[in-house]
């Protein structure tokens, strides 16, 4: 099995697209994260898997709290901006601080605020368990989906 085969086959599993954000002493920071999942109902926990090569994750880890913004169907450009390294990822992005201070991105179909509960090894990624403190959703906004290497929209009619 090659890495290309692995990526190709797993690309058949559609995922939502999220931007994980935090507030640091230097200002807001964030990265695009497709590796996100609910983890536990009791206690409420989520799972994010930032790449070990991420230069943003250490700043979010130091903040100790974050917000998972589940992007809306029309936010593909925003996702691409947060997927790139460097630059001001928040330039032109409308956001407001959540209860834990982490940026909530306007137009997202849901947001989940969490505190870092534990961090583990995940190969070329870091396994982060987040204890959920606040969350909400806007059912009128359809989610942005990533499938087979492309953004797609889910028909939520």
TrEMBL record:
- What are the entry keywords? Oxidoreductase
Identify a single GO molecular function assigned to this protein. Answer: riboflavin reductase (NADPH) activity
Coiled-coil region list: none
The Flavin reductase like domain covers which part of the protein? 10-153
Lineage, top-rank taxon, reads Bacteria
The record's listing under SMART domains reads: Flavin_Reduct (SM00903)
PANTHER family tied to this protein: FLAVIN REDUCTASE, FLAVIN-DEPENDENT MONOOXYGENASE, REDUCTASE SUBUNIT HSAB
The Swiss-Prot or TrEMBL record describes its family as follows: Belongs to the non-flavoprotein flavin reductase family.
What is the official name of this protein in its record? Putative NADPH-flavin oxidoreductase
Q: Which organism is it from?
A: Gordonia polyisoprenivorans (strain DSM 44266 / VH2)
* Lineage per the UniProt record: Bacteria, Bacillati, Actinomycetota, Actinomycetes, Mycobacteriales
